Amino acid sequence: MAAARCLAEEQRASPSDLNESEGLFLCIFESGGNLAHAHFEPASVGTAHKLRVGVFGATGYTGQLLIELLRAHPYAALQFATSERESALEDGTALIRAEEAPLDSVDAAFLCLPNGVSGAVAARAVAAGVRVVDLSADLRLESAALYEQTYRMPHPAPQLLPAPYGLPEIARSTLHKAPYIANPGCHVTAVLLALYPLARAGALSDAPIIADTKTGVSGAGKEPKPESMFCEVYGDVKPYNIGRKHRHVPEIEQMLDKLQPDRGALIFAPHLVPLEVGLLATVYATLKPEWTLERAYAEYQAAYAGEPLIKLHPLGRVARIREAAHRNGAVVGVSEGAGNTLILTCAIDNLRKGASAQALQNFNLMFGLPETAGLV
Q: Which positions fall inside the Semialdehyde dehydrogenase NAD-binding domain (predicted)?
């Protein structure tokens, strides 16, 4: 299992040495590096005691933002960043090829790599004792067969499945000290945060759940594509892969099946809108007959009252992209529809809570750091 590196002594420390209430601890190993013979000394949090991290795929939108966030993180120090095509970032930071990455020099690695590539790198890093937060889809689905059906290619690392699923507001207890974490997709994050309190309470009827999402163009990635060019996007709203065709449907339903298996099927309608960043999920969900609007809203208050990165609006107020864009959390709204149908809204920044900021939140949890370190 990967561990927190004590840089000053060039020794490795147990992940339990990072205590949220006590601060960081130095682990001074005695002969043999056996944890049974180790003793611990409190240490102030300084540059010498930061966790060493690497970023694979540093030139895409998520990788660039992740490096920006890591540089402001009080407990992390960037050791390397990779790119297969570029030699340096705009600020002069040198980039190396993924195959040259010195895994023995880091405690954790963030993978901002393509689907089908990332899983193999994750397996190599985990085998080297490095903790991993994977921002690709390779570890999100619990079944290799479902992955192959959804992404139409063999799974690159089936031995890592099932992986802890990195949506902290839902699965926080599985993330502490996890050796690797699957970072959720942006649409998935927004839809699940909109539905979670109802599904947790078993309040959803067996009627179909309709999730309409609208996301900025950065969600399509940095690679040039005709459909994301300015002239194709500007002045238009484009639905794509609607119904049950989108590859995020199995990911959303995988979690909903755990929360409330008797709920209705998901109908998913993502849209591309001419914005740089931001994602809004508008979800139409029907309650069981015994549920009222007020009772449902009380579930949201109970679920999100203590969540540091979730802002719950008063009943009837909707979430908007401008409230979440360029911020690291999510905004949730609950509104009345007709009959027993609610209209749920959740806004996030697709590159932040939908990707890089959530990856950092997961990193904090896996190492026992304050959850919002580097995020607020």
A: 52-178
Residue 97 burial (CB < 10 Å; 0-12/13-18/19+)?
exposed
50-59, 86-95, 147-156, 355-364: least confident range? 86-95
Domain 4-184+355-366 = CATH 3.40.50.720: yes
Q: Which two tokens stand for residue 76?
A: 């992390």
Please pick, among 6, 27, 112, 186, the residue that the annotation labels catalytic.
Answer: 186
| Helix locations, the chain, DSSP H | 61-71, 118-127, 144-151, 168-171, 186-200, 230-233, 248-259, 293-304, 321-324, 357-366
User: How large a percentage of the chain has pLDDT more than 90?
Assistant: 80
Domain boundaries, the chain: 4-184+355-366, 186-354
pTM (predicted TM-score): 0.86
- What is the architecture of the domain spanning 186-354? 2-Layer Sandwich (3.30)
Specify whether the CB–CB gap between 27 and 13 falls below 8 A: yes
Strand duo 279-286 + 108-111: pairing? unpaired
Dihedral class, residue 222 (left if φ above 0, else alpha if ψ from -120 to 50, else beta): alpha
27 is an active site residue: no
